[in-house]
Design a protein that fits this description.
- The protein has about 350 residues and is of the alpha/beta class.
- It folds into two domains: about 150 residues, 3-Layer(aba) Sandwich (Rossmann fold), CATH 3.40.50; about 180 residues, NAD(P)-binding Rossmann-like Domain (Rossmann fold, 3-Layer(aba) Sandwich).
- The strands form two sheets. A seven-stranded mixed sheet has the order 13-5-4-3-1-2-14, with helices on both faces. A seven-stranded parallel sheet has the order 8-7-6-9-10-11-12, with helices on both faces.
- The longest helix is centred in the N-terminal third of the chain and has 16 residues.
- The chain is globular.
- It starts with a strand and ends with a strand.
Amino acid sequence: MNCLIVQPIHETGLAALRAAGITPVLCPAPDMAMVARHMGGIDAVITRDAGLDAAAFAAGDRLKVVVVHGAGHDPVDKEAAAREGVIVANTPGANARSVAELAVGLALAVARRIPAADRAVREGQGGFRESARFSELRGRTALIVGWGASGRETGRMLAQAFDMRLLVHSPRAPRIEGGERVASLAEGLAEADLVSLHTPLRPETRHMIDARAFAAMRPGAILINMARAGLVDEAALLEAVASGHLGGAGLDVCSPGAPAGARWRGTATWSSRRISAARPSRRCAGLPSRPRVMSSRRWRAGCPRPRSIPTSGARRRAARPPPKPRSEGPAHERSAPG
């Protein structure tokens, strides 16, 4: 069985695949044109935020399953998966603690202006302490948007470490334990000193934090985005920070090129792209042993459910006899050519 690794994973994860009799095929680059060129003879795909597009699905001659090692699945074309009868799975909760720790770290960095203070010291600038505005987290109110694994863990850390009051906006969560459910996003924004985003990107959540949302926030509030760049209207974010209404933002995700833009300088605390998912190598980073499997038909309906039954198309494809051995020699780990 050949598994295309679209984006790098830790050697421990590759070793786990080999031990299970799966041959890792390393894709030279995560762009979809390159991925599509290497889909021939691939039975499974492991991807991350690069996802998998319709052209890559169409290029797969024996693809059966796509696994996202993480919770976010919006870059995977579920319509194409349904057409091709391919099962799609994700791994929610695998990196929840890592995401939560970085969320808290970003909140502290913004509140205490740590990156800006570091730059001032290194550049020999005096008077930073007197010129900057600082805030504290203890006893304040936090709004967690998205009460999944990372949202719950972030809320737990904020409550335990800083005695913060927890508000939760998560319409799809059946119950909220450890926090107070708010009737609407606007209600939560009006009360929160810290807003942390952990919700998936869907049509109804795209730009959920826009100019109107920023206006509803308390003056000096802090925004943390640990989920998807598309949740935030970045133009509105710039305006909110420039006006002084927003205290600052810590972003684990942003649109391509945004951090390097001149307009962004000094407006937010940045982390490297998606370092929230980085974990120690004592476990297979990004490769938990029990992914949640959803049928692509349910994905199309926008209603994923764990351990759901594969679509009939996926069952037919899984039942096909294995292909005849290739002529190039015995199977072994191979890196796809560039």
